[in-house]
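subagent[fold] <- orchestrator: predict structure for attached chain, return tokens only, no commentary.
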Amino acid sequence: MRRLLLALPLLGLALGALPPLLGPSLPPGTELRLLSPDLRTLHGAWRVEGKRLLPLSQPLAPRAGQEVQLLLALPGERPRPLPAVADRGDVLLLHQGERISLLRLLREVYGLTPPERLWP
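subagent[fold] -> orchestrator:
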């Protein structure tokens, strides 16, 4: 019983960690594109270069709370759409009923240095 009580704080820390929603790693050349749900409007595009996330286009800011699609294209793989919501310069990925910040995920899980905001 005592062991279980000692393990509970560690379990809490593990559950508080962000999951690697985008895959095990984001190698150089990975592209992220933010699109409207109907895939007609490109809100922004970025590429992983080293440990940085560099813009490929001038961003077109979506409305806060607008549903969007994040298209993840790893080198040599088919692009994968991920449902998300725009939020004041960030993208909140929808995962198991929760919203996870893309910028925080890129920093904390993948060790990248994204811009402070994806759009002004």
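orchestrator: received. Logging for downstream: Residues 30-109 form one domain. The chain is about 20% helix and 35% strand.
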